[in-house]
Amino acid sequence: MNTDFEQVILLITDARNRVYSKANAELVMLYFNIGKIVSEKVLAGNWGDGTVNDLADYITENQPLLKGFNRRGLYRMKQFYEVYSDVKLLQLFNAEHKNLIVSPVMTQLQDTEEQVIKFVSTVLTQIPWSSHLHILSKTKTIEEKIFYLHNSIKERLSVREFERQLNSATFERTMLGNKFSTAITSKLPAGIFKDPYVFEFLALPELHSENDLQQALIKNLQNFILEMGKGFTYMGSEYRLQVGNKDYYTDLLFYHRDLQCMVLFELKIEEFQPEFLGKLNFYLEALDRDVKRPHENPSIGVLLCKGKDEEVVEYALSRNVSPALIADYETKLIDKKLLAEKLNQLSEIFYKNEQ
Question: Regarding the domain delimited by 170-354, which CATH topology (the fold level of the hierarchy) does it fall under?
Fold first, then answer.
């Protein structure tokens, strides 16, 4: 009986999700088309700020139950149209994420306006309007917008989850991880790992032990996986590895579905020391010899430390054989401006080294 009831609930949930998805798609297209009208009228000099106010009043008078069509809402629609009708953004998105666009792919479309409509209808309609509002108000560059569009679609983020990604500067932290790992090793895939990781949801005191950190992450596993990315599947903590006559226990072990490999997170509550890598590499070798299956890729290690000297990390990883990342972790949200400055500084350092 309960199984039959659950089946009915599942049907209701699926239908409700489809209705919501369809309604959101229609809403996004509506806002885009209204934004197009407002943008073109303003650009041509036919409409000024007063006319937009009059339009808002006219909509309210004729459709009093409608929400979101006030002056501010109309200008958001105008901004929405102008941002996503940018040919440069379309080309960059298509080059990096054409797998997210329903065929025929945009490269087969000759007309620019047709490209824009295809992009809006196949990509932008997959994202809730509330998430679009966050992108418009909290991102600056084309690259940042594309990053969050891709993440929202790929990981199927709720509005709340998406807002956390923006507030925790996921773009800057992912770029920092990519920048540093690419500069010193080609073993790590781009766009998967971050630096630093932010665990503001743990509510840990400034002074805490490695066990405190580990137990808090386990208790908040859902938030931890959201911070890492939804491709991760939890395999366990204190995972036992037997080498020779001794047992060794890893901190947190995951499997990444897209990378098809195990990812080991080792936790340190102190600044990175080069000797930490020896133990991490030992664990990775044991995982690959005794746990990894033939079709899987080599395991990846992530050392989470409470601080690091970038030059020390560069030296330590320069001859490291195993794919590994040394990342900071923070227990509070970080100012995006500080991360942007750090990214610029890191770019300048490696640019000078290449000269």
Answer: Trna Endonuclease; Chain: A, domain 1 (3.40.1350)
Distance (Å, rounded) from C-alpha 216 to C-alpha 231?
Answer: 21
**pLDDT tens digits along 82-140:** 999 988 888 888 777 665 554 444 444 456 788 888 899 999 999 999 999 999 999 98
Looking at residue 296, the DSSP 8-state letter turns out to be S
Counts of helices then strands in the chain (DSSP H, E) = 14, 8
- Three-class SS string for 32-93? HHHHHHHHHHHHCCCCCHHHHHHHHHHHHHHCCCCCCCCHHHHHHHHHHHHHHCCHHHHHHH
pTM of the model: 0.77
Asked whether 329 and 305 are in contact (CB, 8 A), the reply is yes
C-alpha–C-alpha distance, residues 303 and 326, integer Å:
5
Looking at the chain, which residues constitute the CATH 3.40.1350.10 domain(s)? 170-354
Cβ burial of 230 (10 Å; 0-12, 13-18, 19+) is: middle
Q: Which of 350, 347, 336, 345 is nearest to 172 (CA)?
A: 336
| 24: Cα separation from own chain's centroid | 21
* Residue 188: both structure tokens together: 């790590």
φ, ψ (nearest 5 deg) of residue 330: -125, 145
- Long-range pairs, 233-240, Cβ under 8 A, ≥24: 233/257, 235/262
**Chain centroid to CA 344:** 20
